[in-house]
Design brief:
Layout: E1 7-16, E2 19-29, E3 34-38, H1 45-53, E4 60-65, E5 68-72, E6 76-77, E7 86-88, H2 100-105, H3 114-126, H4 142-154, E8 160-164, H5 172-189, E9 192-197, H6 200-206, E10 209-214, E11 217-222, H7 224-229, H8 234-240, E12 244-249, E13 254-257, E14 260-263, E15 272-277, E16 282-285, E17 295-303, E18 307-314, E19 323-329, E20 339-344, E21 349-353
Parallel strand pairs: 3-9, 3-10, 7-8, 8-9
Antiparallel strand pairs: 1-2, 1-4, 4-5, 5-6, 10-11, 12-15, 13-14, 15-21, 16-20, 17-18, 17-20, 18-19
Helix pairs in contact: 4-5
The structure holds adenosine-5'-triphosphate and magnesium ion.
């Protein structure tokens, strides 16, 4: 027998006055699956999560948890307590008058039991905060508070956890560490998780699947590699990295540009198109003696750590000057004004009819 999805949204819509915060949202979260809701500020991520948690009253559609309806249109809604969902918010919401141990135990009855005490110690140890068990929240750093909030949610072993921007208050290093811990703990616990973020790298790191949202409308749902390599539209392509942009017209199944000939897929001849090329798709090499190859000129180059960023401009053969960014792994620093041969990786090049 196939297990019921841990969480289902069926054609959910939500308005605040004239603002349409969520439009026709549908999603199934499988048991143990981590799904990230990704999109810019104000696109409706928090609203979606609050609707599932029962913190916002549903207006249209249906929400089911473990196969059971928990809210249907505006006529039926279970309270948050009845939904058995673990929640982690950006502000952690720890109780100031309780110690770390007591905060974690809050909400789980009989926490004085030895067994429960053992479980709490084990959980605090896994999260690297065992030595903080008797401290109060005001004496903890943001990262430590975040771990306590996570321990509190994991202790009752919920089947479904929702996290709203849980890593946003942390500095980059600590955030990477806590993200990593959280990913492994969620996977170990077997809980399904819905995680809200506006950071595409975070979504790719954490999510088994990602839902990209813009203005309350789902743009694409898929695995990280699908969304990155086969974006459904310009918005999705741009949300995951900086992109180079070139315009052109389709002619005989191709677009001739000053840096290469690009396959136009099934876009009709004569269509004006926008071509998006990720910086890592541009390959640079020494010019050869070949009679014809596409060339560009380096104008700046900087090493950024794992990769080098090379600023380029086209030769301007037909008068059109384009500024491009190429990202090359490791150290690659061509001279200023050096002429280079350019090749484009078609797998990181996306072509759409110009909107
Ligand atoms: N209580 C409310 N009353 C009126 N409008 C609201 C309310 N809550 C949210 N909105 C509006 O609904 C839209 C979606 O808000 P939501 O908080 O879901 O966005 P978000 O994607 O979580 O954004 P952020 O990344 O900034 O947290 C926004 O336009 C917001 O202004
Ligand atoms: Mg939000």
């Amino acid at each position: 027998m196939i297990a019921d999805p841990a969480l289902e949204f069926i054609d959910v819509c939500h308005h605040y006055g004239d603002t349409s915060a969520v439009q026709g949202f549908s999603l199934e979260l499988a048991e143990g699956e981590i799904v990230c809701l990704l999109g810019p500020s104000g696109c409706g991520k928090t609203t979606t999560l609050r609707l599932a948690a029962g913190l916002e009253v549903l207006q249209y559609g249906e929400i089911r948890i473990a196969g059971k309806p928990v809210a249907k249109s505006s006529d039926f809604s279970l309270s948050p307590e009845e939904r058995d969902v673990g929640l982690v918010f950006q502000d952690y919401a720890l109780f100031p008058h309780l110690t770390v141990k007591e905060n974690v135990a809050f909400g789980v009855r009989n926490y004085r039991d030895n067994e429960m005490a053992d479980e709490i110690s084990q959980l605090l140890k896994t999260l690297g905060i065992a030595d903080l068990a008797n401290r109060y929240p005001h004496s903890l750093s943001g990262g430590q508070q975040q771990r306590v909030a996570l321990a509190r949610v994991l202790l009752p072993k919920p089947k479904l956890i929702m996290l709203d921007e849980p890593f946003s208050g942390l500095d980059a290093r600590l955030r990477d560490q806590i993200r990593d811990d959280t990913l492994h703990l969620l996977k170990q616990s077997g809980a399904a998780a819905l995680l809200v973020t506006h950071d595409s790298e975070e979504a790719m790191f954490m999510g088994d699947r990602i839902v990209v949202i813009n203005n309350g409308v789902t743009q694409q749902i898929g695995r990280p590699e699908e969304i990155y390599c086969e974006p459904a539209n310009i918005f999705v392509a741009e949300f995951f990295s900086e992109v180079n942009r070139i315009y052109g017209f389709v002619e005989n199944g191709k677009v001739n540009t000053t840096i290469g000939i690009i396959d136009s897929g099934n876009i009709a001849g004569g269509t004006e198109v926008e071509i998006l090329i990720r910086p890592e798709a541009l390959r640079l090499t020494r010019p050869t003696k070949q009679s014809f190859e596409f060339r560009v000129q380096a104008i700046e180059a900087r090493m950024l750590g794992r990769s080098s960023l090379v600023h380029l401009c086209t030769d301007g053969v037909d008068g059109e000057q384009i500024h491009l960014h190429a990202r090359i792994p490791g150290r690659y620093l061509p001279e200023k004004n050096e002429r280079l041969r350019i090749d484009i990786d078609p797998n990181q090049t996306f072509i759409f009819p110009k909107p």
